[in-house]
Amino acid sequence: MATINxxxxxxxxxxxxxxxxxTAQTITWPLLTQLATPTLVQLLELHGLFMPFEQHLxxxxxxxxxxxLKHVPDAPLIAALNAKIELVPGNNLTTTELRYPAxxxxxxxxxxxxxxLGVPEGKLKLSATPKPVKATxxxxxxxxxxxxxxxxxQHLAALADLQKALTHQNNPLLQKSLLxxxxxxxxxFLKSQLVAVIPNVAANxxxxxxxxxxxxxxxxxxxxxxxxxxxxxxxxxxxTLPTIPHFELRNLLAHDNAAxxxxxxxVTYMDEDHQLTTVPFKAIIGxxxxxxxxxxx
Length: 297
Known about the structure:
disordered N terminus; mainly alpha; 12 helices; 48% helix; single chain; 3-stranded antiparallel sheet; 9 strands
């Protein structure tokens, strides 16, 4: 597998968490201090740092997690957690538990750690297009994927990281977040593949007004399953875009999280026929991997 550019992988993952403002020349990420605490926690998870906030962990050598911040040994979050983790009696007289603080109580160290990890914030310049087209909120999707393409290798690596994280995570809420991230990353990869085959608008459309109209129409189609199917049919030699596997689950995770349950590495949800469906994590990630490989050929 090809070496993955860390910044490109980060930007791909960020699409599952936050949406930057994009123009033809710049991309503006929100300031970390302006993000909600759950979003900051998701950014930690994007880097493989799954912190057991508000959890109790048994104080035994074989059950304590490996150094949760081993990749960032000088992270400000380490000192903050060490100061706030409490030792409390367990369920019986012979056990002790570690009680981790709520993420909100270590918010500032989380922000400092994310900055140390290189999470982008603020306005960044992008390479100029041959004929810059005025960007609007409706055209942001096109520019985002035109300037930060996602390769199959990068996407498969991101899915592999998510699958590994799922197997090492016991918190159902975090597992649901990881599963949703896998679906959103897959949609982002599909958008990137579509934008990659669309002829360059600035080079092929005369006149800024017409360029703006074309870019706006493309971006609008990128936002909906029907629109993406239309673009795929148009630019992939009349082929029919396959459905993203378990897409009903994706919608439930995004809009009705409580409608799904997770037990022993499997997620159960109600399908469109009102039948309970249970699918292992491995099958979900495998299906998304197969989808990505299919549309990239």
